[in-house]
User: Fold this.
Amino acid sequence: MPAAELYVGIMSGTSLDGIDCALVDLSQATPRLIASHYQPYPQSLKDELLELHHPSGNELHQAQIISQRLARDYAAATLALLEKAGVAACKVRAIGCHGQTIRHRPEHGYTLQLNNPSLLAELTGIDVIADFRSRDIAAGGQGAPLVPAFHDSILRHPRIHRVILNIGGISNLTDLAPGQPTTGFDCGPGNLLMDGWIARHHGQAYDRDGSWAASGNLIPALLAKLLAEPFFSAPPPKSSGRDLFNLCWLDSHLEGDEAPADVQATLLALTGQSIADAITHHCASTSEIWVCGGGAHNGRLLNYLHTALSHCHVAATDTLGIDADWMEAIAFAWLAQRTCHHQPGNLPEVTGAQHPCILGAIHLA
Assistant:
């Protein structure tokens, strides 16, 4: 057996719930998750991050202060992870840290993830790979999604047409059709609208198992208005985030007299239907849909997908040997390895970039 090649992957996504930190051995074709650690965001940090999604009078200063705070939190999560695993920092080749996205505007040539990778390297004593998306955008791509390259590497089947569906704050898919180039794109909102709506009305971080949505009734006219958003009918490659899908966007479509539970039921249908439409229109011969991300725990949403895509087998990626909760953190460890080995980490068929690129900036410890 080859010697271990250890990387740490850190992911904090559009759900703004916290930090996923994974220690991964990438010495063999199939990644081995050695240990994982989750560190939730305090509500104060989540509120500050949400404020930075919109222009303000002091946003540059605030962004830099929060970047330092995030780097310290990333470092604390990394050191807690290594202590849990009983692994010394000197044994880790690099940290792949996505950072916290606050703006994603590839149509204007930029994406912005808050992070201070130099500080993270200083605090951990480990080289840090960060800013993965900018190089793809420089080559004409969307800078997202990046995880499909990882899915292609480890989850492709030679005969079975699979879709890997990540339902985080935003939902995105990877189309793994046998004998065809891998494609992938963002489908639309995943959990972020449902999370924001239940937080507004009940002060809860998320709708556990979709139970509040299940108590409401679908509003067909509202669903039709939401699905009329041009993003849904735009052809891939495409990506999105809170810049488009946020509670202000939702409020602009409401009459104001809707029952909150009915809106939640409709938001769940929006997520489910936009995913089903994307698969039907762009991945028509799919027979297996493997789900990862927080949405994999929403039983009501998975039931919606079972019904809308009844010809497909729908299940969590755990069955394939990759824990649904840790897929993205493992992927960013893998992307860090690609950078360290001077190998491309993007798929132009997915992002729309003009060519494959070595992604990320390296910050030496």
Q: What stands out?
A: The domain at 6-141+326-363 is CATH 3.30.420.40 (Nucleotidyltransferase; domain 5). The two ends are 29 Å apart (CA to CA). Residues 172 and 186 are 4 Å apart (CA to CA). The chain has two domains: 6-141+326-363, 147-320.
